[in-house]
Amino acid sequence: MVATKRVISADSHLQLAPERWVSHIEPKYRDQAPHSVRLDDGTDATIVVEGKPQLFHGGLTGRPYENRSPNGGRWETSAGAGTPEQRLHEQDIDGVDGEILFTYPTGIKYYRGIADDAAYKAVIHGWNHFLAEEYCPVAPERLIGMCMLPDTGLDDAIAELEFAARSGMKAVCLYKFPSGKDIPTVEDDRFWAAALDLNMPLTCHVGFPGHAVFPFEIDPHKFASGVDPFTKFNQYAVRGANNALQMIFFGVCDRFPNLRLYFAETQVGWLPHFLDILDDQYDRHIHWAERILNMHKLERMPSEYIREHFWWG
């Protein structure tokens, strides 16, 4: 008997009217929670505090291409924005067995309009609590929500990671390195270790900030030639690959050989060319970088780390 192949969307988004989930935020912070507005052109949107409206993208999804528009998306009439049961019905129509559900495309960056860190963390936790307690349990094998992690420091990231694991969620989504910085740090190792101990898969939607940022401190006086070896290794990197290189050259993959990270929405056609050029550039530049900058040679070729530790959507 031939098994039926399952079709899983590895990069879907869940954009809901805030009123559907803000009750999961701790009451004393709900005055800073997002709320819905309807714009003059009839498009529904979300506002956090008094920030810029984030449009609901319902006009661009769930309808024939010729009928799509960035304007006019309504919470109550658009595909994907209703109950979990509606979402499952729409999956059935599309022939999809399940979806990995990221939050709004901008992720936690949108909630950074909340100046109070405690309120900011409460809003992120409220969303995660909604996913874990109300939305995903309707069909946990088909509604695969990605819990958000705050970027307010390592302890906060680990606390939300542990909540996700306790709640039975299937993965978490990083938007920065765990410490909240644009480069990996030694402190992040506590997070990587905790994720492995909890058997909690890690994802990232597109990539972290900090493109081509050297993954550790170096002496700027040693750059008289103006040649940055990390930029050479990184020059053909697209969407997330630069972050993978930061982790590789900072030694994260050597310290955590079982660590894996999935980068969603990366348009993977560039990947074979990148891996080819990466190893060539590494061969060309690592020797002088070791002599002049004390940059350590890798135990293996960088493409081997990419293939073993990172997945791409």
Describe this structure in words.
The protein is an alpha/beta fold and 313 residues long. The protein contains nine helices and ten strands. The chain has a seven-stranded parallel sheet with strand order 1-5-6-7-8-9-10.
Record the SSE blueprint.
Blueprint: E1 8-13, E2 35-38, E3 44-47, E4 54-55, H1 84-94, E5 98-102, H2 117-135, E6 143-148, H3 154-166, E7 171-174, H4 189-197, E8 202-205, H5 229-234, H6 241-249, H7 252-255, E9 261-264, H8 271-293, H9 302-309, E10 310-312
Helix pairs in contact: 3-4
- Kindly, what is the distance between the CA atoms of the first and last residues, rounded to a whole number of angstroms? 30 Å
Spatial order of the strands in the main sheet?
A: 1-5-6-7-8-9-10
Backbone shape: globular
Rg: 21 Å
Strand content: 5-15%
Question: Mean pLDDT, nearest integer?
Answer: 91
Q: What is the compact description of this entry?
A:
This protein has helices at residues 84-94, 117-135, 154-166, 189-197, 229-234, 241-249, 252-255, 271-293, 302-309; strands at residues 8-13, 35-38, 44-47, 54-55, 98-102, 143-148, 171-174, 202-205, 261-264, 310-312. The protein is α/β, with parallel strands linked by helices.
Question: What are the main properties of this structure?
Answer:
313 residues, alpha/beta, seven-stranded parallel β-sheet, three-stranded antiparallel β-sheet, 13% strand, globular
